[in-house]
Fold this sequence. Notes:
The protein is of the alpha/beta class. 39% of the residues lie in helices and 16% in strands. A 7-stranded mixed sheet has the order 4-10-9-8-7-5-6, sandwiched between helices. A 4-stranded antiparallel sheet has the order 11-12-15-14, with helices on one face. Helix 3 (84-95) runs antiparallel to helix 9, helix 4 (108-118) runs parallel beside helix 9 and helix 5 crosses helix 6 (158-165).
Amino acid sequence: MFVYNKVSFSREPAASADAASICKDAARAGRWLAAKRSAWDWILMSQFLRAKVFNMAGYTPGEQPRDADVVKLNTNENPYPPSPCVAAAISELLHHGRLRKYPDPLGQDFCQVAGRILGVDPASILIGNGSDDILTILTRAFVPESGLVVSPTPSYLLYKTLADLQGAAFQAVPFAPNWSIPEPWPVRDAHLTFVANPNSPSGTMVPVSALENLAQQLRGPLVIDEAYIDFADATALPLCRLANVIVTRTLSKSYSLAGLRFGFAVAQPEMIRQLTKVKDSYNCDALSLAGAAAALDDQEHMLLNRTKILATRGRLTRQLRALGFQVEPSQANFVWVTRSDRPVKPIFETLKGRKILVRFMDYGVLGDGLRISVGTDAEIDRLLNELQGIV
């Protein structure tokens, strides 16, 4: 017998020792060594990484199941396919062998299309690998280490993560009643202020007039995150005439391109020229640039999908209220629901067990709820049928 790190082994197994017991001893030693190696790796990483990064929680994206049978209503994807023009544009690019060359670092063709569709100067547009890339660029550009980032809460959790990565403080300002922003705004000296409009998770809107008033109170930039704006009644794009306002957009939601990853910002042209210094040199690939331009150019297709989603959103809201849920009036492609008679997490867990994914979100003292994406009519029918049996 010999002993290694308190694990005993037979150097020459006795005749009575079976293979199973030998394998069991070896497995014990393997687990111990793996645990020791893991602990050592943890110590090394804690020394190499910035303390802020090592200690931060990080952003947790919504679950992406591999099971095709799951009804996926948890990450606000569009339930309908993108414009056929997207595949055609990508196919043409591939046919001409463009993948061997770097893409246009400024996305000038896309900016021309976006400028025409949105009625803005193409020079006022900054491209990004999804709007999260744009939010990262803005944080890197404006927020110094030990700076301050501010946002209303409950809202998009990524804002805090971006502040943490920058080594900055994050201050959450609770919404006033009816999801309005406090007046006067209590933190005017932030290096960067984010307002998601429509807001996530609530789907509610801050009036453009209130956002303009907020921008005039701030001593730093105001980022108006319009990820869901195509499902809403009004946009803050006219506020980009103000020097401290930046509006961000994504093609993930209304244009059905969550898998392609493309977003952009609109601001004063001089602001865009400065922000271009901060972005990665080729932050958008040739496929996403071609697909994004084609999708944006096909407004008819997007608006047809929008009409279907808004109709389903209205029906979902009415029927959820009939089932006893409190549902905020939404201007997005999802609804935010709570209950006063019972916790909602067991409802989330039961639905998940039945292969229906919604998003459970807990904001501590501000409460929790379920954010439910608007799916196809068939998907929403299945959800409502299950909820009738649960509640």
